[in-house]
Amino acid sequence: MIHVTVWNENLHEQEEGHIIHKHYPNGIHNYIAGFLSKQPDLTTTTATLQMPEHGLTTEVLDKTDVLIWWAHYGHSRVSDEVAERVHQAVLQGMGLIVLHSGHLCKPMKLCLGTSCTLNWRDDDRERLWCCNPGHPIAKDIPAHIELEQEEMYGEFFDIPKPDDVVFLGWYKGGEVFRSGVTFSRGRGKIFYFQPGHEEYPTYHNAYIQKIITNAVYWAAPTARLHEEIKCGHPEPLE
Ligand code: ZN
Questions:
Q1: Separation of 114 CA from ligand 1 center, angstroms?
Q2: pLDDT digits (tens, 9 = 90+) for 112-155
């Protein structure tokens, strides 16, 4: 079994229900957990900003194989302690999938070490091109996917050079974006995936669900440490 924790800042849900409830009446986190839990070998739980320790205690992270992170305007409300705890869990092997406006979240910036800023414009249409069809995250995904409504995220995206660029976004405004990128940090795998603006039904799209599901299997650890990573001093060879 792969244990997935879907984290959401849960602020649109609490403060702007008129925006989010049209497509996600129970919140984005519950919607994502819902389609993932249809896989017989995935178990899902959810956690939110408002819970004690944002729902990401050491016990929860120890049991989490893959953490999915959706956030928008509450990044600064995440405690530095919890953000660093997530960072350390990634170094120990936990997979991390950061969605859409989560690009500025503290764990992503701690893992990548850059500003993770980008250009954006509201209300556009996106054609999401698969530029790495052999990658496990692109399994059973066509050459391109049309998203009739999506927020434009454009270059320059201030990230380190990715291990792989799996998807490229193109918008009717002419902008392009590295929409699906992978990184490895320590023992952990990271996937950032751009689609998922809260006003649009992006996560209802079967291909978007397939990409996120593929990413969970890809990011699940093969070897996870459950202790602080320390310097080793191996015995000299005889
Ligand atoms: Zn957005």
A1: 20
A2: 999 999 999 998 999 999 999 999 999 999 999 999 999 999 99
Q: Distance (Å, rounded) from C-alpha 86 to C-alpha 204?
A: 28
Helix (H) or strand (E) holding 213: helix 206-219
Our measurement of the distance from residue 78's CA atom to the centroid of its chain's CA atoms, rounded to an integer in Å, reads: 16
Q: Give helix 206-219 / helix 28-36 axis angle, nearest 10°.
A: 70
Centre of ligand 1 to C-alpha 192, Å, is 14
pTM: 0.96
Q: Which domains are present in the chain?
A: 2-114+179-230 (3.40.50.880)
pLDDT tens, residue by residue, 42-96:
999 999 999 999 999 999 999 999 999 999 999 999 999 999 999 999 999 999 9
C-alpha to C-alpha distances, 9 to 6, 61, 180, 181, nearest whole angstrom: 10, 17, 21, 22
The pLDDT of residue 229: 67
Surrounding residues of ion ligand 1, Cβ less than 5 A = 101, 151, 197
Region 164-183 average pLDDT? 98
- Please give the distance, rounded to the nearest whole angstrom, from the Cα atom of residue 100 to the centre of ligand 1: 6
SS3 of 123, please? Answer: strand
| Alpha carbon of 183 to ligand 1 centroid (Å) | 22
